[in-house]
Write a structure and sequence with these properties.
Strand content: 35-45%
Oligomer: single chain
Helix content: 10-25%
CATH topology of the largest domain: RNA Polymerase Alpha Subunit, Chain A, domain 2
CATH architecture of the largest domain: Beta Complex
Structural class: alpha+beta
Number of strands: 22
Number of domains: 4
Largest sheet: 8 strands, mixed
Radius of gyration: 50 Å
Distance between the termini: 176 Å
CATH class of the largest domain: Mainly Beta
Number of helices: 8
Length: about 400
């Protein structure tokens, strides 16, 4: 804000205060009006601006509905003396805020903290000190002036401070976790990470308690979003403890080196239903008139990326019994043949397993036609005496 605007605001505020004082004093009303009216006319611009601004603030904030929000806020202590540490119990406190929703969203981004005064080493020697929490202890390190936000109450409303000597201990580092999704059809895995232990500096008694409970340090997640086939190296930082383990500690500055390998995704998915077996013969093979296939259908299990296999059905897979060249296929010579599966080209299928993997083929020979008997001449009929003509009989009987 420029100096001219600040001066105008100061003059307007002073004038409003005089107006209020004059309006509440009956005795000086006439004197007030005689003295203030010329000033009102002279300073009409800042007066109008001040009244408009006050109206906007009143109707824009105070008349809007507010809500209560609960947040877990970390408790910190103003600088402890060098060589000592102050433990806080509990390390986080539930705080009830009240205000407009948009202001609470800004408050979350600011990450508020509760900052209590250090009672001094003398007050903590050989014991503890209970500190009541006050609304003014809530600090917003990133942002200022949230307007409508106010603190309603704390739960609990006090914390206990315990003096502790500074110490350093080594702790194991948990294997980092992967975050995100590689390219379609791929999966990611961690090959190795280093270091596997790190030194933590902080309150000695608290660190010893961690060590007794087998506490391990956590790292930030490793992002594998969009990665394709191959190996990559990522560096992630060690995270400070949170929740019930939260305390002021000093962590090593170096980051954890993580080696990640990205492989083709291998998810087995059995197909529901059986696939019929088809026959495939080499060129020039004496094709028999009939072949018996045993069994006539098989089951299949596909291996690949789950999103690639989800839409594949038995109807999309063709299974062939490919007869090799030089094979002899007769009714008396059963032939065992390996099966070959063919899958859609647009699917990334890494492997297909058939059950059973082989079938048996047997040829069906055609039936031989029975031999036909040779044709025979019909036997000659024996001579039969004719008895039909009496005259002929008489001629035959003549000497």
């Amino acid at each position: 804000m420029s100096e001219g605007k600040r001066d105008m605001a100061r003059r307007g505020a002073a004038l409003l205060r005089e107006i209020w004082a004059g309006m509440t004093s009956e005795k000086s009303r006439r004197a007030f009006m005689a003295s203030i009216w010329p000033r009102l006319v002279e300073n009409r611009v800042p007066v109008v601006v001040s009244l408009a601004l006050a109206t906007v603030i009143y109707y824009g904030i105070h008349d809007r509905p507010t809500e209560e929000f609960v947040r877990n806020v970390a408790v910190k202590v103003r600088g402890a003396s060098e060589g000592s540490s102050i433990g806080i119990n509990p390390p986080t406190v539930r705080v009830v805020f009240k205000g407009l929703r948009e202001d609470m969203l800004a408050l979350d981004m600011a990450q508020p903290i509760i900052l209590v005064n250090n009672p001094g080493d003398k007050a903590l020697v050989g014991g503890t000190n209970s500190v009541p929490l006050k609304k003014r202890d809530v600090r917003l390190p990133a942002l200022r002036g949230f307007g409508s936000v106010s603190v309603v109450r704390f739960d609990p409303d006090n914390v206990t401070l315990v003096k502790d000597e500074i110490a350093s201990l080594d702790f194991d580092i948990e294997p980092p976790k992967l975050e995100g999704t590689p390219s379609p059809g791929y999966r990611a895995e961690i090959i190795s990470y280093s270091p596997k232990r790190a030194a933590v500096t902080g309150g000695g008694s608290r660190l010893k308690g961690w060590d007794a409970l087998g506490h391990k340090l956590q790292t930030a997640p490793v992002s594998v979003d969009g990665l394709g086939f191959g190996e990559v190296v990522r560096f992630v930082e060690i995270l400070p403890p949170t929740g019930e383990d939260a305390m002021d500690v000093s962590l090593p500055p170096e980051k954890v080196e993580v080696k990640v390998r990205v492989l083709e995704q291998r998810t087995p998915m059995p197909l529901e239903g059986e696939i019929p077996v088809r026959l495939s013969f080499p060129q020039g093979f004496p094709f028999p008139k009939g072949v018996v296939v045993e069994p006539t259908s098989v089951r299949a299990t596909l291996v690949g990326a789950e999103e690639q296999l989800r839409d594949v059905s038995p109807a999309n897979v063709a299974v062939y019994a490919e007869v090799p060249e030089g094979a002899v296929l007769t009714a008396t010579n059963a032939l065992e043949v390996a099966l070959v599966a063919r899958v859609p080209q647009d699917k990334s299928i890494l492997e297909i397993t058939l059950a059973p993997p082989r079938v048996t083929l047997t040829a069906v020979e055609p039936l031989e036609e029975p031999e036909k008997p040779e044709a025979q001449e019909p036997p000659e009929s024996p001579a039969v005496e004719s008895r039909g003509d009496p005259a002929a009989r008489e001629e035959d009987s003549t000497p």
